[in-house]
Amino acid sequence: xxxxxxxxxxxxxxxxxxxxxxxxxxxxxxxxxxxxxxxxxxxxxxxxxxxxxxxxxxxxxxxxxxxxxxxxxxxxxxxxxxxxxxxxxxxxxxxxxxxxxxxxxxxxxxxxxxxxxxxxxxxxxxxxxxxxxxxxxxxxxxxxxxxxxxxxxxxxxxxxxxxxxxxxxxxxxxxxxxxxxxxxxxxxxxxxxxxxxxxxxxxxxxxx
Length: 208
What we know:
Elements: E1 2-4, E2 7-13, H1 20-36, E3 40-46, H2 53-57, H3 60-73, E4 78-87, H4 89-93, E5 103-106, E6 111-113, H5 117-134, H6 141-157, H7 161-166, H8 179-195
Parallel strand pairs: 2-3, 3-4, 4-5, 4-6
Antiparallel strand pairs: 1-2
Helix pairs in contact: 1-3, 5-6
């Protein structure tokens, strides 16, 4: 719980993978913010959901889906700021662009992608090597090196803050030093929008 510029807000942040316990805690916190009508602020720095035997036995799929459901169904205003990494399904859980936050901004050092560039390169290398062995071919180290490096380089270029903002995956890049100022402005905008009554429009689709 916090106040920014005198306005109440609920803050969810992370620093690494989302664990089953973390997913449960965040989902319950979203429910509380929904009941108290507090806007939610998500500060992204996640590698995604925790994987592995322990995580699966502790219900990461069940609890992770609870978190994504809570984010998707919350009716309170939602603001997202990608302060570092936002990878995989963790981006959904932290109210990325596809979960329709009211506002989403990024710091210049941030990265958004399906997975880390180095991990993606290694995964494709393993898949390609397995395919070659399955077809009876001798794995080609040079080809595998090229595939791994080119994949890693391409994903790294396409996960930067500048690339993502150019693709309209966020509302802009902000200076980290201006974060508090921006948040106050966004909260004021949200509160003002809640007080204004809009006239419904009944115009058809204009053709040009």
